[in-house]
Amino acid sequence: MSQLDVIARLAAAELNAETDLRADSINALAQLHATADRLAPVVATRQRRRWAMAVGVAAAALVLVGVAMVVHDDDEIMTMVPASTTAPATTQDAGTAPVTSAAVTTTATPTTATPTTTASPTMDGVALLVGGVEGLEFGAGAEVSVAYFEALAGAPSSDATVEYPVNVGDEYWEDENEALGFAFRIERRVCWYSDSFCIELGGGDPGALQFVGWRSTAGPFATSEGISVGTTWAEIQDLVTIPPRSYCASWAYAATESGVRVTLYSQDIPFVETDPVTIVETFHDPDPSRVVVQDLSAGEVRFDVHGDC
Question: Cα separation of 85 and 298, whole Å?
């Protein structure tokens, strides 16, 4: 038997071994290499090439078998899974840009609701007249009058009814304290703009009151001549007249040409000074630019019975 046959039989014997091929395959491969080394000097060159080829084939077969199968004691054969696996590399066309998924960031744009505003009713531009106001004359019924001003100025700031039980001849009526006077026994006073503009409803019967007067102590309300509270005397000297002896300390009681009453107040020297001992009056001419309109009124209004001015 030649050395080559010995080698082939050794290889076949190793292939049929019912042992753990993973360990035996490695040992068999080592023994084959050792045997080849011992026989190398006596084997011809041609035979050595054939032997090397046979060894290579046998070694490759042993390795493939060791990787593919494991022989168990119960002769069951199962497929081996390599202990370490590497995910296949993904190739990409060099001319194609990589596709990336970027997180989309959204920013909510804050919205500001436009506030809804409702224009406040106003009497600005409604002329104050000697016989009422623009659009409503004295003598109108109480409910009609109140509704008219509510349409112009909204809900009133006050609404009160007063009875004046003390009759003072044909001139006026006084309250029970004889402090306030009014031209009628019943007065209903309705005011707007923090009581700076009031209308007077008067009569002898609470159920039959009429619009009889108005008074303004602030605000933009103006007469048909353009006079309003805060206007200086210097601006209206040609529009108002101060009757004789219509002065009281720093106040002067004037009237427009149409008859609207205008109360002037001096922020300078008083119009008149009275000596408390001699009762002698001394009149002055205050600077008209320092004298302002303090009050406007027309018709019948409440008054102070015992007021000095």
Answer: 108
